[in-house]
Amino acid sequence: MRIDPSAGADGPASAGRRPVIDVRGLSLTFETADGPVEALSNVDLRIEEGDFVSLIGPSGCGKTTLLRLIADLEQPTAGGLMVNGVSPERARLDRQYGYVFQAPALLPWRTVEKNLMLPLEIMGLPAAEQRERARRHLALVNLAGFERKFPWQLSGGMQQRASIARALSFEPKLLLMDEPFGALDEIVRDHLNEQLLELWNKTAKTVVFVTHSIPEAVFLSNRIVVMSPRPGRIIDLITCDFPRDRTLEFRDTPEFVEVAHRVRQGLRAGHSYDE
Amino acid sequence: MTNEAVRSVRALPAKARVRPAQAGPIGVIVLGLVAAWYLAAMVMNAAGVRDQFERDESAYTTAELIAGTLSAERPVLPAPHQIVAELANSVLSYPPNSNRSLIYHGWVTLSATLAGFVMGGLLGIALAVLIIYVRTLEKSLLPWIISSQTIPILAIAPIVIVVLGSIGIRGLLPKSIISAYLCFFPITIGMVKGLNSPDPLQRDLMRTYSASAPQTFFKLRWPSSMPFLFTSLKVAIAASLVGAIVGELPTGAQAGLGARLLAGSYYGQTVQIWAALLAAAILAAALVAAIGAAERLVLRRMGGAP
Q1: Contacts of A109 in chain B (CB under 8 A)
Q2: Are B303 and A111 within 8 A, CB to CB?
Q3: ipTM value of the model?
C-alpha cells in the first residue's frame, strides 16, 4: 500500500484507500504542422480503488489523451503518473487494465467467442480456460448464445457489449473506457449504461470513463472530472456519491439535476473566455 | 467502416461468378470476337492464297478463295477452327510424354511456373515483411524493387540462363528464377499494403494486450492482409507463367510452351504458334481460377459476409 501525505482533494476520508491512478503535473504537447498543441497542461488527479470516474469535457479538452496516457498509448512531455504504484508501461506489460475503444474494434475474421479469446491467447492461457472465460464474460454482457456469430452479424450495441466483455475477459482490476457508447443511439446507450452500472456493482472494478454526455457521466460515476480545452486541464472535481444501485429513474430526481447542473456550469465556465 | 470495406472486398469473388442472366451478353461478345477473327483471317490470308492459285496457274472462284484463306497450311492469321484443331491434335494424338504433345510442353512450362510462383511468392512476402518492420528499408529497398521491374525481362532472361548454365545449373531452376523475378513484385507491393492495413485502433488494441511483435503479426497483420494477398497472387501467377515462357526462349527451344512458340516461328508454323498461345492462355486462366477458388475458401473460413 502507498502512503501518501498529500492525499488529494478528498482529504482524510479517502486516505485509507489505495490510489489506482496517481497523476502529478502531467503535461503533453503534440508537435503538429501548425505548431505545438497543448493537449494537457499540468494535470493532477488521483483515482482510488473501486471508483467510477468520468472524464467529461468538450472535444479537444484532452480527456481521451489522459486516458491514453494512463494506458501507455501516449508518452507525457512533462510530469508523471503511476498506475497501481508502477509506471504506465509496467502496468500495460502486466495487463493491469482493460481498454474499451470508441469503436468495438472486433476482428472481423474471428467469431465473437474467438474475439474474446484474443487477449487470453496472447496471455497464453490453456485453451479450455480461454473458452470458459469467453463464455462466462459473454453471459455477463447478456450475449450468451452469440459465441459462434461473426461481428458483422451483430448490431452496433451488441458489438460494443462484446468489446466490453473482451476487455473484462482477462479480469483486469482497472477498466479504461473511451466514449464506448458515443456511436450508439440514445435508447441503446441508456440500456448499456444500466448494464455497465450493474457490472460495476458486481465486479467492484475501478473504471475511468471518458464521455461528452452529462447525463451519462452523472448517472454512472461516483466522481466526475470536468475538463476544459486549450490547454487541456481539469477545472472541477465533483463527487457524486449516490447509492450505486441506480436506475434510469434516478435521472429525474432533484439530486441528479443538481449535480448535472454543476457539471454544465463547469463546462460553461471552461468555455466562456473562448467564445 | 473498416469492417464495411473488408466485407465489400470479400464479397467481390462471389459477385465475379457468372450468373445465368449474364451468360447471354457474354455469349454475344464471344461470338462477335470469333466472327471478327474469321473476317480478319480471310482478309489477311487472301493475298497469300491468291498468289498460290496464280503460281499453280489454276482458275479459282471467290468461294474457293475464301475456303483457301481458312485452310492455308501457313496462314498469316490462322482461323479459330484451325487453332482448335491443332490444339486438339497435339493434345490427343500423341502420348503425354512425347515432345510433340502439348500436354508435355504445357507440363514443362507449368512446373517452372509453379516453382517460380512459390519462390517469388515467398520472396515477395519476405520482402514485404522486411519493409514494414524496418523503416529504412522502405526508403532504401523499394526503389530497387521498382527499378528491377523496369528492366525488360527479355534482356535479363538470357543473362540468367547463361550465368546459371556456366555454373552447371540448367533445366527447371533458371526458368523458375526468371518466373520468380516477374512474380515477386506484385506480391511485395500488395502485401506491404495488406500488412499495414490494420487501423490504428486495432494496433492500439494489441498494444494494450502487450502483445509481442510476432503475436501482432500472426493475429492481426497477417489475417488483415488476406484479401490483398489473394489479389496480388492472381496478378503474380499470370506474371509467373509469362516469366516461365520467356525463360524457355533462350534455351534453344528444347521443351515448354515457349519452345513451341520459338520452333513455330523458326519454321513459319503459325498454326502451331497460335495453338501454343491458346494453351498458355488456357493454363493462365486455370491458374487464376485456382487462386480464386483458394481465395473463396479462405475468406469464407474467415467469416466473410455471404
Answers
A1: 223, 226, 302-303
A2: yes
A3: 0.85
